[in-house]
Amino acid sequence: MSSGNDDLPNRHPSPYFLGFPRFAWRDFRAISLWPFLEQAYFCGRPTWSTTQIPDLAGKVVIVTGGNTGVGMHTAKALLEHNAKVYIACRNQQKAEVTITELHSMTGKHASFLKLDLANLHSVREATKEFIRCILSSCKENRLDILFNNGGVMATPMEELSAGYDLQFYTNVLGHFYLTTLLLPTLLSTSKTNQDGKARVVNTASSAHYVARADPLNFDTFIDGGARWKYTTEDMYCQSKFANIVFSNELARRYGDHGIVSTSLNPGNLKTNLSGHVIHWPKKLFLALLQIYPAEWGALTQLWAGTSPEGAEFNGKFLIPWAREGKARKETEDVQLGRELWTWMEEQVAKLI
């Protein structure tokens, strides 16, 4: 883990130059620019489609952030193939609108699960409510697929949650706690499935390729001097890098027990994920990157979560559109995976 200091933010020079993050030479050397560009502009058209999803009758699925964007299209395809779908998100009103729209499109009802990933108490209550829901509906206590899809991007550095960086808390720590609370249900479900598997699909991003040379600076996860040397873009890249590191560590710890943990880049998509960006140069830059329809972004995670071959994707990183790829090599660092897991366990113990 990196060690920083607790200097006040205003003692540091601006981490931006002309509105974009400053990079040291070692950071430029560390990034993997070609896969970032290849997955942005040279993906081609999808060759796998939702028509190839098998019948999911009897399967129970949670999709975090399922009320909008990629999550909504993921939920739609799952409903079309007869899965029982829980849309887990913070805003019930928005979720109910999405559930109504999905019903009009599929003829199937999704269920709402109140979940604020930036609040571990909310995560715990969501898990309890999920267990109550599946028991009260006389279903077997099961969870076949967990899509860790929700997230935020480029939130202002002033936005925190309990003193933690909002992006890291939401994108990584919240999903870590949700997953670990649901592990007993996932593990028991795997024993009832024909392939002996239950799946956890972790949505990362091509942004992890352009994380800094120190891709997980633990001192920046909590507000302080080290964090204020970084930009909101740095924090997003770190969070997406951490999604992959967590996914790989989950695969190592539970792959032999029936859990298939997969991470992926959904693609550069036209969604509202960048709604926090207000400066026009960044808006223009993102507009040049966000070029594919949101429904394409659901394909890779649906492939991971539902296809027969997906049962063999434990520890793998997938890229657009429904292809195997390679994440940045540091994501495979076993020691880093252990450190991140331990750090998150420690934070959960402090916050709960």
Task: Give your account of this protein's structure.
Helix content is 42%, strand content 13%. It has ten helices and twelve strands. A hairpin with a 2-residue loop joins β1 and β2 (20-21). Mean pLDDT is 90; it is low at 1-11 and 273-278.
What is the mean pLDDT?
Answer: 90
Distance between the termini: 23 Å
Percent helix, as a range, is: 40-55%
What's the CATH H-level superfamily name?
NAD(P)-binding Rossmann-like Domain
**Name given to the CATH architecture:** 3-Layer(aba) Sandwich
The major β-sheet equals:
8 strands, mixed
What structural class do helix, strand and pairing data support?
A: alpha/beta
Q: Strand tally, please?
A: 12
- Give the overall silhouette: globular
Per DSSP, the total helix count is 10
Strand content: 5-15%
Family: Belongs to the short-chain dehydrogenases/reductases (SDR) family.
Pfam families: adh_short
Organism: Laccaria amethystina LaAM-08-1
Keywords: NADP, Oxidoreductase
Key traits:
alpha/beta, single chain, two-stranded antiparallel ribbon, Rossmann fold, disordered N terminus, 42% helix, 12 strands, 10 helices, 352 residues, globular, eight-stranded mixed β-sheet
Write the layout of secondary structure elements.
Layout: E1 16-17, E2 20-21, H1 25-30, H2 33-41, E3 60-64, H3 69-80, E4 84-89, H4 92-106, E5 111-114, H5 120-136, E6 145-148, E7 160-161, E8 164-165, H6 166-190, E9 198-203, H7 232-254, E10 259-264, H8 280-289, H9 294-306, E11 317-319, E12 323-325, H10 334-351
Parallel strand pairs: 3-4, 3-6, 4-5, 6-9, 9-10, 10-11
Antiparallel strand pairs: 1-2, 7-8, 11-12
Helix pairs in contact: 3-4, 3-9, 5-6, 6-7, 7-10
